[in-house]
Specification:
Layout lengths: L2 H10 L5 E4 L6 H5 L1 H7 L3 E4 L18 H15 L3 H16 L3 E4 L5 H10 L6 H8 L24 H7 L1
Parallel strand pairs: 1-2, 2-3
Helix pairs in contact: 4-5, 5-6
Protein name: Aldo/keto reductase family protein
Keywords: Oxidoreductase
GO molecular function: oxidoreductase activity
Length: 167
């Protein structure tokens, strides 16, 4: 989806929410579409807020720059007595405050215990310094394995074909 697609869609009918991949491992959305979504008052559903698990799995082959991000996540998690995954999810929750647009993270889960951990992350309050530490590592779209084929380059979650025909 492009900024123009979002504007055309919103002109036809107010867009209730925009779902895009958004995490510490993939922040391309912040540069591409978030300013337009915020301007139009469109809430964001952030799918894969843990980077398809990349931000909380240990022992995987290193991605360029991921070591710094994981180290920051681990250190902050230890300070709060939580997991790195919960900190990564809390970072996404905090983006609402940073960008002034409602954000609903949509993490996947494989168990009820993970569901409880994901829910608890919404209550985790990160300090300004902690947020700066998490923002400091390399700015992605950046960790290539975090992307699935077609992420962020497919047309959209709704049909823009009809919008283009009308607009």
């Amino acid at each position: 989806m492009t900024e123009a697609d979002l504007r055309r869609a919103h002109a036809v009918h107010p867009v209730a929410a925009l779902q895009e991949q958004w995490s510490l491992a993939n922040r391309d959305f912040e540069r591409r579409l978030l300013p337009t979504a915020a301007e139009l008052g469109i809430p964001v559903v952030a799918h894969s807020p843990n980077g398809h698990g990349l931000l909380h799995r240990n022992g995987e082959a290193a991605e360029p720059g991921i070591e710094d991000t994981r180290a920051a996540l681990d250190e902050i998690a230890e300070e709060h007595g939580t997991t790195a995954g919960q900190v990564a999810l809390a970072w996404v929750h905090h983006r609402e405050r940073v960008h002034g647009v409602p954000v609903v993270p949509l993490p996947g889960t494989t168990s009820v215990s993970h569901l409880h951990m994901n829910t608890a992350a919404a209550e985790l309050s990160l300090s300004g310094e902690e947020l700066r530490r998490l923002d400091a590592p390399p700015r992605p779209g950046d960790f290539a394995r975090n992307r699935r084929p077609g992420d962020n380059d497919r047309p959209s979650r709704f049909t823009t074909h009809d919008i283009r025909r009308e607009g």
